[in-house]
Amino acid sequence: MILEVAILDIGKGTCEDFEAAFRDASPIITLMRGYVSHELRRCVEKPSRYILLVKWQTLEAHTVGFRQSAISKTDGVDTPRKSTNSGLQTAWVCRVPTLRQLRS
To answer: Domains in the chain, start-ordered, CATH in brackets?
Structure first.
């Protein structure tokens, strides 16, 4: 399992627009092969910052299947960033061991 972690800084005063656009765009990523789940969390200490967590079955599902797909280049996925002038500050992709791997 792969965990993608992205820190998103959103323009002040545009968080409601960002959240609405994110809700509209969320179904798009669920269509990707290898997608497992995603979660958006708002930072308590800095309300204009969000953490996006996306779980993928494999690294290739994220790097090839999603990042190189036509879907990742459409306005549907980019809408939250474009409509709110937010910036992707940091992103990590981490391998998360499965329960079977932890037990062995």
So the answer is: 2-98 (3.30.70.100)
Q: pTM of the prediction?
A: 0.67
Q: Give dist(CA 48, CA 45) in Å, integer.
A: 9
- The C-alpha atoms of residue 97 and residue 100 are separated, in whole angstroms, by 8
* Per-residue pLDDT in tens (0 to 9) along the chain, 104 residues: 888 888 898 888 899 999 999 999 899 888 888 999 999 999 999 999 999 999 988 887 877 766 555 455 444 433 333 333 345 455 556 565 555 655 66
